[in-house]
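Figure 3 (text version): structure tokens given as input.
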């Protein structure tokens, strides 16, 4: 156990996690190890979509819901931690159609139910960690609680969403666009917290004998099914009502126009720079943007990519009306082997 007082650790976990997640409102074989195609002799775990694979998710905002939903639709079992007060809204957003039907292998776990969390952790193959809010990262106490070697028996991979931290394309125009147009514009102002978060993830994963993957994002946009529930694997259409602040929500326009994805190895993607005032709520392809759907797909799909182990990569946007195919995703992930 990383913290000596187990009881106080549980209380800290409940308190911090409920506060973190509550900010949301505003096929089939055993996981295997394969050898990386390089001169390295180490073997890296991949978690393939199987009947027995179990994927857990923790974080805040809309992205964890997409992650949990995609995990349930592609793996045997999935669970996501959520505050009891937001349970119904999370379920509504995770519905696969207008009837409110949920994936039957997706479990919503109250943040206060530490006994159930610990039971699930014992059989979890991968943990996904993500926060929508640019001012938030998952608290180190929560990371240490979840990634306690005494609790995780099967954990192979931890995939965490971070941000583009290189500082390129940032500055006063980006900060101004965040204040004036979109409070969730990534302006690099919380870079210190994200660097610390990344190190916490790496250290905790190493103690568990698991590999880590850092997936970098810029300003998160969209993430739902689009018109007429075109892509039901993402958030339900009710997302657009929740985020609507005009006759037509720009989030819907973004999802209609930006289904393409690009990946780049390392921390190399740029922000919007002087164009930030036009891109803050823009629904076209722009530097510094990341689609929630694209980020979630990259995180879940990276579980099956050996070269994603102990690597970081960034997710950007490409103008397209259709999502990438499996073949296109495989080609994009080849950037990690270079």
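Below: residues designed for each position.
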């Amino acid at each position: 156990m990383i913290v000596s007082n187990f009881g106080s650790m549980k209380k800290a976990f409940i308190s911090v996690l409920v506060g973190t997640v509550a900010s949301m409102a505003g096929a089939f074989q055993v996981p295997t190890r394969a050898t990386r195609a390089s001169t390295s002799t180490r073997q890296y775990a991949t978690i393939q979509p199987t009947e027995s694979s179990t994927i857990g998710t923790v974080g805040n905002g809309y992205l964890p819901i997409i992650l949990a939903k995609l995990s349930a639709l592609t793996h045997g079992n999935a669970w996501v931690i959520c505050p009891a007060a937001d349970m119904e809204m999370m379920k509504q957003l995770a519905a696969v159609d207008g009837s409110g039907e949920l994936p039957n292998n997706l479990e919503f776990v109250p943040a206060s139910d530490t006994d159930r969390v610990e039971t699930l952790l014992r059989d979890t193959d991968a943990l996904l960690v993500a926060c929508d809010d640019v001012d938030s990262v998952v608290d180190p106490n929560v990371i240490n609680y979840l990634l306690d070697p005494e609790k995780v028996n099967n954990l192979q991979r931890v995939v965490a969403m971070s941000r583009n931290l290189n500082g390129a394309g940032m500055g006063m125009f980006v900060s101004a666009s965040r204040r004036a147009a979109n409070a969730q514009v990534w302006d690099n102002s919380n870079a210190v917290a994200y660097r610390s978060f990344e190190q916490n993830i790496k250290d905790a994963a190493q103690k568990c004998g698991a590999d880590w993957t850092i997936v970098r994002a810029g300003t998160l946009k969209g993430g739902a099914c689009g018109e007429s529930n075109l892509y039901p694997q993402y958030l339900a259409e009710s997302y657009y009502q929740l985020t609507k602040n005009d006759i037509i929500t720009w989030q819907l326009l973004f999802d209609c126009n930006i289904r393409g994805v690009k990946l780049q190895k390392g921390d190399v993607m740029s922000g919007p720079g002087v164009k930030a005032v036009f891109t803050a709520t823009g629904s076209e392809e722009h530097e510094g943007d990341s689609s929630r759907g694209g980020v979630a797909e990259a995180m879940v799909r990276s579980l099956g990519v050996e070269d994603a182990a102990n690597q970081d990569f960034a997710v950007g946007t490409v103008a397209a009306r259709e999502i990438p195919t499996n073949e296109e995703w495989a080609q994009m992930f080849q950037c990690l082997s270079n």
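The mean pLDDT is 88.
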